[in-house]
Amino acid sequence: MSDEPTLRALMLVEEPEFGDILQCVFGLHERDVETYLALRATGEASAGELADGLDRDRSTVARALIRLHEKDIAERHRVILDHGGEMFCYEAVPLPELRSRMHEELGAWADYVHGRIEAFEADDTVAR
Description:
This protein has helices at residues 7-11, 18-26, 30-42, 47-54, 58-70, 95-123; strands spanning 45-46, 74-80, 86-92. By secondary structure, the protein is of the alpha+beta class. The protein has a domain at 7-93: Winged helix-like DNA-binding domain superfamily/Winged helix DNA-binding domain (Arc Repressor Mutant, subunit A). The chain has a 3-stranded antiparallel beta sheet. α3 (30-42) crosses α5.
């Protein structure tokens, strides 16, 4: 799929893969999905640790992790470093929880679209 997921693009894929659906449902970029999959395989990790494994700049991975955290796909907690300072570590939400969130997001979108469809007849928005 392209870096800009759309429901239409997903519908045209005969058997969409997990990453394609994750990307579409949450409006993620491909690199976000790759970061999620790496995090899931690694367990708990910092942006720097994941960046090494993904061969990406730490700041790029950090932005992806922030998006995943904002979408409630990754959990984040602060770690105090022995030499002073702190960093964030991330962990992918468990798959059952992620599946539930995907259903919720898709259901909310479907409810919205159903409401829009009903509004077409009521307020003549079809002409717009």
